[in-house]
Amino acid sequence: MRRSAVCPSNPPADMKRAGRTSCDEYPFASTYEGGTHLPAKQRTITWVKKAENDSQGGTITNWRRAYHVMDHDPFFVIVNHRTTPVLDQRCFSPAAAERSTSAVVKRELSMLVHQAEFTVDLGESGYLIGFTEHDDYPDEMPYGWRCGPAGRSSAVVLPTTDTGPLQLTIQIHDTQPAPEAGSEWEPAEEISLLAEADSIQLAILDPGDVSDAWPEDEPPLQLLSTPDRWVCMRLYCHADNSEPGIGDHGERHMIQLWPASAAAPIHPALSEEDLRARGEYSANTTGPTEEYTIELPLQE
Asked: How far apart are CA 150 and CA 138, in angstroms?
């Protein structure tokens, strides 16, 4: 990190009337991209109220210390814009201020703390992801949804591809990220998971088997510290070919995780066919085991 603020020599008259001022810039002054490092069209340097600048600087510094962002460590800044009508005393005389409001944009920073991207070779029943070791098949399958709980700490995800490659991106954010824009993704689904472990576990489901799927050369993603250990999982899916089948369907999933209290899930409505498929799966998993033993040699 470095300090490289460069501001105009004097604040404008309206800012002087607002009280003590301070130079603010974006990218942040404490980063290598701050100051005049980038071309003028890629940066912003201006005067703001000193109290606001000090508060924002403290927020950034505390975040950097909490997540051990060191010199030359990269990080992402995701800006959520919300326009709210407020009374802005700086821009008007006292008399005019009583009659006028100005729409200002409040910026909330959501930091992408960790990210992993890799290919998963799918089995026939999707995959499990969460914060616990996966030993068994889930008691229920989320037919009609893309994901559903496989317990309090993990989720089962049903891809379009029956067997084949899946491009998977897993992100950990410090707060709720803004929804992905554009139409490349299906509508997102969300569920809450209890983080029983500090790192994310990934497994694929083949008939009669659950096997570890996290790549050996990819460091495990660590969970952010959260008081109640609950995390929100948001799933985005895309497939070039929406018909189920074997092979490369150009399928991509993005999973976003961030600390959040347990909340009601977000899923599409279930159809009668989905409910019937769930009932059949439940019956197959709770009924008696069929006897496959035969006597040899077979009698003619």
From this structure: 5
